[in-house]
Structure formats: C-alpha cells, structure tokens
Amino acid sequence: IYDWITEGATLREVARKLQENGIKSNLKNDFSATSVLSIVRNPIYKGIWKFQDEEYNGDAIVSEAIWEKANYTISNRSLRPTAKQVLHYNPLRGLLKCSCGKSMTIVPVNGNYIFRCSTKKDKYDKVICNNGSINSNLILIAVWKCVKLVVSLSEYINRSGEEITNRQNEIEDINSTINKKNKEIEQITQEQENLVDSLAVVKDTGLRKQIETKYRENQCNIYRLNEEIKRVGERKIGLLQLIEKIKHQADEKIIDGLSCEQKRNIYLRELENVSFYSNKRKRGFLVVKFKNGYERIMLLRSRKLPDIFLLPSFFVMDRENCKVEIQTNKRRKTAGIGSKLRIYDSMELEKHFNLTDWDIAKDLKKVK
After folding, report:
1. In which region does residue 94 sit, left (phi positive, over 0), alpha (psi from -120 to 50) or beta (all else)?
2. What is the pLDDT of residues 324-350, one digit of tens each?
3. What pTM did the predictor assign?
C-alpha cells in the first residue's frame, strides 16, 4: 500500500488493486479509499504505538522515511499542477455535488483538470452516472464570482478589524515577556560582575570552583534567555507582517487576492452546496445554494475563454430535466417574454435571450 501511494496511485486506485487481488480487511470487507487512508495515516506502521496519551516504540512494518513520504504525497495531492504549472487547490471539496447527488472531484484528463462525478465509474470501470464533466477552473471562477455578487463580504472584511485587535494584544503580551526577560538578563549580568570580582580576591580552591560553576550556569541562562527573546521576537515580526496583510486584504478591491483556503472558509460559512447539471457537451447549469435557502443559477460554457452567465433570480432549476424555467408569470412579463411557461436548455437560452447582458466573466476576456 505504501509503495503504491509513493509511486503515485490514488487512494481509490489502491483500494481497487486490493479488491482485484482478493485482499480483504480483518472483517472480510472490501477495502475502500477511506480504509486505505486510515492505514497510511496510522503511525503504528512506522513503529509508534500510542496508549493512554503516551507513545511507545514498537516493531515497524515500513521505515519512517517511507511512511513520511506516503503521508506527504497524500497531503499534497489536493494541490494539482495544471498545464501551466499552477497549483490547483479545491476549495469546493465536499460542497460541489453532481446532479445525481454524489460529490464531484477533480481528476486529470489530457493535461487538464475537470470536475467529474465521484461515482462516474464503478470498480469495474462501468459508467454509472451520465452527468457530464466540466473544466475545474471554470467552476471555481464561476462560484467565486457568484458569491462576490450575491453575498456581502462586509462581514468578512469587518472581522479583519477584530483579528487585528487580537494580534495587537498578542504583540503587547510579547513585549511584556521580552521586558521581563531583559530584566532577568540585567540581573544575571550584574551577578556575573560580582562573581568576577570575587574570583579576584578568593584564594580557596574549593570556593573558586563553586564561583566558576555558578558563573558558567549564569552564562547558560543568559544564552537561554536571549534565545527565548529571539524566538518571541520572530513571532512578533510575524504578527506585524500579518497585521499589514490583514489591513491590505480589508480593502475590497484586493478581495480577489484571498487564498483558496480563505475562499473556502467563506464558502463553508455561506454555502449549502453547489450542484452541476450537464446539459450539452462542455456546458451546463451551475446552481449555487446559500445557507439561507437563496439560489442562483449560472450557465457555463467551457471554451478557450470562459463563458459564465449569471441568470436572473426569476429563473429556477428544473432538476429532473436539467433545464431552467421562469418562476412566475409576472416576472416573465417583466422580462418581456411571452406568457407561456417554457423550460430552456443551454442552447435554447442562447436563442431566446441576449446572454451578454448576464455575462460575469467579461473581465477575463479583456485583451491586455
């Protein structure tokens, strides 16, 4: 298992290999990706046994180097290099759902990365979900743009003020600690001077050895205190840099500079789920559902330059047919269309509506 992981096999691939070789768990069950992960993560296989919060050394099945390499491989697998060598992190992990209800995961295809249903194929490589795949970057860009337009990020920005206050309080504590340690150093330094003066007059050999021993102990304490000051000083520098970063991000113009991890925190706080409904090849509808029940639908087209159309709020998703429809007669008339209720697939939308009015990816198509 460890060799397969370090050679690049995914958890699912390892589980499939075990199944193909007829290897079962102790409970005579097939291995799953989750059970394989629990094995790889378990330190007992590198000889570290834990009992009642204490660690003991025991027999190892794999070397610590192999164990660490396998765990490092798994931990960094969510960061996928694209064709342009850009690390691809998945902030929608666990939130993005297929039309069948299962999660969608990132998989590589011909040098690119796509979101595909996690149950697209079974262990025998048979197709069991007909929902199409979609370019992963297109999904990630669309969701972020939708969230920015729909959700007020003022709360997120205002919270930066609280975070700055907390960091400043921590800096004050560090300053207090540094002052205390500097006073200790001053006291020990004064004591060292007194010890040196004593050595100049004391003739007794035994007493001189005691003074010299005390002097060396003091020197060690001074070194220790200076190292502690250096360590908390580095922490202080890091906090000051963090405060500057937070202040910089508090500007809404810089909000796109948030890391994928920070965006994920916003998603986890605001979103119930995101669902993709494949409609035609390399296109489909993306439904973003917020925790307050509000939904917005986007039409996505995967081309050289991404097409992302945020449909008006009076469109609702016909999940059974993977199409969209108008919600009320009143709003249909307001939109300037007929009174007959219709549902539209992606191609029909292009025929009946001017999609450019709903394009939220225009900034990605500007020529530099």
Report:
1. left
2. 998 555 444 445 555 456 788 888 888
3. 0.50
